[in-house]
Every structure is written in C-alpha cells, then in structure tokens.
Amino acid sequence: MLQDFNQLERDILRWIKEHDPIPGLASQIEKAVFRSREYTGCGFYVNFDVPDDTPKLGSSRRDHDGPLVESPHLECGAMTMLWAEDGRASCLEIAAFGDQ
Fold first, then answer.
1. Distance (Å, rounded) from C-alpha 58 to C-alpha 72?
2. Which 3-state string (H, E, C) describes 5-68?
3. pLDDT at residue 36 greater than cutoff 60
4. pLDDT of residue 53
5. DSSP code at position 99
6. Contact 61/73 with Cβ under 8 angstroms?
7. What pTM does this model have?
8. Which of 10, 41, 58, 89 is 20 to 30 A from 19, comparing alpha carbons?
9. What is the DSSP-derived secondary structure letter of residue 2?
C-alpha cells in the first residue's frame, strides 16, 4: 500500500521491512494505511493504521530502529524509529540531530 506516504517515508518503511526480522513486521508495513503527519519543529511523526486481520508482531518490543538519514539540508543528519503498540506498528518518527 504505502500510497499516501511521501517518498522519504516509503523508503524508510521499506528499509525497516527489509532489515528488521521481527515476525509480522513486514506484513504490517506492506498493509499500512496513512492516517496523519505531525510536524514537531525538529522532525515529524507519521501515524498510520494496519488492518486488524494482519498478524500481530512476534515481539513485545515497542520501538524498531530505522536507518539514519543523511541530507545536505541537515548538518548532523536524522534518526528514524518505528513505534508499535499492542503488537501493531502505528507510528514512524523522523527527527533531526542537533539544532536543525
């Protein structure tokens, strides 16, 4: 799916899907449905839903590391993190390092 996510968000979610071996995570990312984007001043949160019929994550972890972001517009780069609640991925966080 990933159709209402912007290109950066899609690329990060695909990277997480390919690099995090948690059972069920790849399936949830593939079926994620964009809900909202909240800007924080140093980054943003991308909130989404996954269908109830998608298997829950095979881990109790609530956070999943994503790739570091490098950009000529960010002196120190940025971090990414995928958050989950109750076995379901729900939010992608992207935040710049430093005072960007």
1. 37
2. CCHHHHHHHHHHHHHCCCCCHHHHHHCCEEEEEEECCCEEEEEEECCCCCCCCCCCCCEEECCC
3. yes
4. 93
5. T
6. no
7. 0.88
8. 41
9. -
Please report, for residues 29, 37, 43, 58, the alpha-carbon distance to residue 54 in angstroms, rounded to integers and kept in the order given: 10, 23, 29, 12
76-90 average pLDDT score: 92
Would you say residue 99 has pLDDT above 90?
no
Rg (CA), the chain: 13
Q: Which residues contact 67 (CB under 8 A, 6 or more apart)?
A: 12, 15, 16, 19, 80
* Run of H or E residues at 89: strand 88-96
What does the pLDDT read at residue 1? 65
**39 Cβ contact list (under 8 Å, min separation 6):** none
55: tokens are 């298997």
d(CA 30, CA 64): 16
Structure tokens at 58: 């095979």
Residue 16 near residue 96, CB atoms below 8 Å: no
